[in-house]
From TrEMBL:
<dbReference type="Pfam" id="PF09346">
    <property type="entry name" value="SMI1_KNR4"/>
</dbReference>
<dbReference type="InterPro" id="IPR018958">
    <property type="entry name" value="Knr4/Smi1-like_dom"/>
</dbReference>
<protein>
    <recommendedName>
        <fullName>Knr4/Smi1-like domain-containing protein</fullName>
    </recommendedName>
</protein>
<dbReference type="InterPro" id="IPR037883">
    <property type="entry name" value="Knr4/Smi1-like_sf"/>
</dbReference>
<feature type="domain" description="Knr4/Smi1-like">
    <location>
        <begin position="55"/>
        <end position="189"/>
    </location>
</feature>
Length: 207
């Protein structure tokens, strides 16, 4: 990413998830993600999602893609068709060379412009800071830092953590960090925080 676009940290737009999107798991709303990427990996734990917006048709996703003016990666489109946003469990991932972070919510395609609607959140994300061309805001952490999905080469398909609060600004002034080469890899990287693991349980490192 070029240094001119994501340099200046700004206050987050969503300091906490909106009240109508409290990420409390519910047995009816929790959706398992392990099936959605079209392949099976032994002993791999995939996140479940609560407060998801439910499956939508390929036509709905394609229409949103056209309105957004980007070409979405195939695995992310599959996520929108099958899970369509929500609050993941587990939530923790690692920002390389910085430390652990949490995924609070991923946006979905909704029938109305409101919190966590993918198109609405692009408008909100650019109120104070312009997004780099070809980058899409797809979710945020509990402090409002944004997850960006690259849709233009050479970074197409990669996921970035945009540190909008300025806690991890790099030496060159940039505040966006690559966290996964694909959206699928980002989903696979979500894991339990050490304090959430059962006492005496061995770390789950299986892939």
């Amino acid at each position: 990413m070029s240094s001119g676009t994501l340099e200046a940290p700004n206050p987050a737009l969503h300091l906490t998830p909106p009240s109508d999107l409290r990420c409390v798991a519910h047995s009816i709303l929790a959706v398992q993600v392990s099936f959605m990427f079209g392949r099976r990996r032994a002993r791999l734990r995939m996140p479940t999602f609560s407060r998801s917006y439910g499956p939508v048709s390929a036509a709905v996703v394609n229409a949103a893609e056209k309105r957004l003016g980007v070409r979405l990666p195939a695995d992310y489109k599959r996520f929108l068709r099958t899970i369509n946003g929500g609050c993941p469990d587990p939530q923790e991932f690692v920002v390389p060379n910085r430390g652990p972070a949490l995924a609070a919510i991923f946006y979905g395609v909704r029938s109305e412009r409101t919190h966590a609607d993918l198109e609405y959140e692009q408008e909100q994300a650019t109120l104070w800071d312009p997004l780099p061309p070809g980058f899409l805001a797809i979710g945020h952490d509990p402090g409002g830092n944004t997850f960006l999905l690259a849709t233009f080469a050479p970074d197409a398909g990669r996921v970035f953590f945009w540190d909008r609060n300025g806690l991890w600004v790099r030496e060159d002034g940039r505040n966006a960090f690559p966290v996964a080469d694909t959206f699928t890899a980002f989903m696979e990287s979500l894991h339990e925080s050490p304090q959430d693991a059962e006492p005496g349980a061995a770390p789950d490192t299986a892939i």
